[in-house]
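User: Can you recover a sequence for this backbone? Please restate the input before giving your answer.

Assistant: Of course. Working from this structure:
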């Protein structure tokens, strides 16, 4: 990963907004929240707040991951959505391009994860100290030395999808932390949050918001 932070300057893509929530399509390369120091101030929540001043954080996506992200517009919505994420009542589907042609059609990775302290922010599988982490996956297609998969995390650990795919021997293409060699030689991390299913904070009706992968 390069030390220079040069986030894309694409206009904000709003997928849905109402009196309680706003959902946007986050570009790859943009932080969800500000980092330490003025050079890391440009981030998605700041851009959202420039249009929706009351926007509040509910969850995050890694800097290099693109796709659907939800923000609350009221403290009530933030609490309501926060509980849904905490209790795993939301459903997230990601699409990824990974190294190698997978032979199985579906599967589940159940491997505990914890931070790899000497190499943080990298995470690794740790059966003694790791926190439980499960990812369901489904093969979309396999050809030309790579596979396209849909990933459905049951838990929300840091770098979970990236480490779980690496553990299967199929690192996500373009991953600055976990890919190497030809698998790293891509313009971006090939991981995109394709859809988010949640209950609306006003009334509890189910909503599903999607954004097509740009790769």
């Amino acid at each position: 990963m390069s030390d220079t932070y040069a986030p894309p300057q694409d206009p904000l893509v709003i997928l849905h907004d109402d009196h309680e929530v706003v959902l946007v399509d986050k570009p790859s390369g943009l932080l969800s929240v500000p980092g330490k120091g003025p050079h890391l101030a440009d981030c998605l929540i700041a851009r959202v707040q420039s249009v929706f001043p009351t926007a509040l954080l509910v969850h995050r996506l890694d800097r290099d991951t693109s796709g659907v992200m939800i923000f609350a517009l009221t403290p009530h919505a933030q609490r309501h959505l926060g509980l849904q994420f905490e209790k795993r009542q939301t459903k997230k589907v990601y699409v990824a391009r990974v190294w190698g042609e997978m032979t199985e059609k579906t599967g589940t990775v159940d491997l505990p994860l914890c931070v790899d302290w000497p190499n943080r922010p990298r995470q690794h599988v740790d059966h003694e100290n790791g926190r439980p982490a499960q990812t369901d996956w489904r093969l979309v297609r396999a050809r030309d030395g790579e596979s396209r998969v849909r990933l459905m995390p049951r838990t929300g650990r840091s770098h979970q999808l990236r480490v779980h795919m690496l553990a299967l021997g199929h690192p996500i293409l373009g991953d600055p932390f976990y890919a190497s060699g030809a698998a790293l030689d891509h313009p971006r991390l090939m991981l995109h949050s394709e859809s988010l299913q949640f209950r609306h904070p006003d009334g509890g009706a189910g909503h599903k918001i999607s954004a097509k992968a740009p790769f």
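That completes the design. The helical segments are 44-51, 75-86, 160-167.
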